[in-house]
Amino acid sequence: MASLSNPVTLFDPVTVGDLTLSNRIALAPLTRNRAPHAVPTAATALYYTQRATAGLLITEATAITHQGQGYADVPGLYAPEQLAGWRKVTDSVHEAGGRIFVQLWHVGRISHNTLQPGGQAPVAPSAIRAKAKTYLIDADGNGGFTETSEPRALEAAELPGIVEDYRKAVRAAIDTAGFDGVEIHAANGYLLDQFLRSDSNHRTDEYGGGIENRIRFPLAVAKAIVDEIGGKRTGIRISPVTPANDASDPDPQPLFEAFVRALAPLGLAYIHVVEGATGGARDYRQGDKPFDYAALKDAYRQAGGEGAWIVNNGYTRELAQAAVESGYADLVAFGKPFIANPDLVRRLRENAPLNTPDTATFYGGDDHGYTDYPTLD
Ligand code: 8OZ
């Protein structure tokens, strides 16, 4: 037990759902665009296994359906060869003593016709094009960023089908791909976040308008997943103020407090919060007030939510240790530092220097910048 003389550290075990994790450091979900034809490879397995000393690995965002795809060479969770590829990843991670959740992705409007089934328009709560780019790879294998396509608005009658897509994906994620759990991607301006925020959701039916309506579809997805595999194997990621992918809402505080209050009864394993602009400024704000993350957590706890509280974005060793020691956070997820330091847990424990991530090899490419960062030994 923690006491004043023995404060909780990043290196102490923590319970998440039914799992006892060996430390409080998580690998944040990181898109790497190295899954040709949406299938994870042997390199994917090596990459995650190299990082298996994290208490929890959260995979890169993984499309639940072809319609949920928005980028070249990102993995999926809907075709047999994708599930088989992931099975090799999870077997290898488990053999190394790690625990791994898959991040469930539907990009909504952050896509391009050429990536969609039949070359159709991407789908969204409303037919509003995002001022955002996606990543495509041309026939010669050259990658580049391109404007997202104009989406079409989903009919209300189509939404149960998307809920079923999530259900099917999580069943397969657990039974076939061998994941320990799933993380619902409700962050960074993708489909579920598009429903949450007023600037991307102009619907006039029960899925748009006031906060209760805008949280309805993301909540329906979460409920279906919990019904399918249980709350203890389900986490969710939110990013209340991020401007990523043109995500925008003038009043995020009551919106996200209402959302976590509504999630509280589901018994989720964790809530994962991106604080600030994803990959950028921690003090980024939308609306006229700074976002109060402690109030967000209080809202969840007051509503009976008992899941672990995972924080992310720009955490240094000192910030992370302080967040855990104060009791504010149960785990801290690291992104860029984990790209460049497969043995990040050891380096943080020993306060060893960190390798610098090479931004040129973040998205796409070969094993360079993926599986070839050096460890301390
Ligand atoms: C960077 C590049 C492409 C996708 C996210 C899944 O922001 C992503 C992503 C990040 O959540």
The separation of the N and C termini measures 33 Å
CATH architecture: Alpha-Beta Barrel
Bound molecules: 2-Phenylacrylic acid
**Largest β sheet strand count, sense and barrel closure:** 8 strands, parallel, barrel
Strand content: 15-25%
Radius of gyration: 19 Å
Question: What does it look like?
Answer:
This protein has 377 residues and is of the alpha/beta class. It has a single domain, classed as TIM Barrel. Helix content is 29%, strand content 16%. It contains 11 helices and 14 strands. The longest helix has 17 residues, at 159-175. The structure holds 2-Phenylacrylic acid. 2-Phenylacrylic acid is lined by residues 31, 61, 71, 187-188, 244, 278.
Short recap of the structure:
This protein has 377 residues and is of the alpha/beta class.
Topology:
Layout: E1 14-16, E2 19-21, E3 25-27, H1 42-50, E4 56-63, H2 80-95, E5 100-105, E6 123-124, E7 133-137, E8 143-147, E9 152-153, H3 159-175, E10 181-185, H4 191-196, H5 211-214, H6 216-229, E11 234-238, H7 252-263, E12 270-274, H8 293-302, E13 308-312, H9 317-325, E14 331-334, H10 336-340, H11 344-350
Helix pairs in contact: 1-2, 3-6, 7-8
Bound molecules: 2-Phenylacrylic acid.
Residues 31, 61, 71, 187-188, 244, 278 line the site of 2-Phenylacrylic acid (8OZ).
Key structural traits:
377 residues; alpha/beta; TIM Barrel; 8-stranded parallel beta barrel; two-stranded antiparallel ribbon; 29% helix; 16% strand; globular; binds 2-Phenylacrylic acid
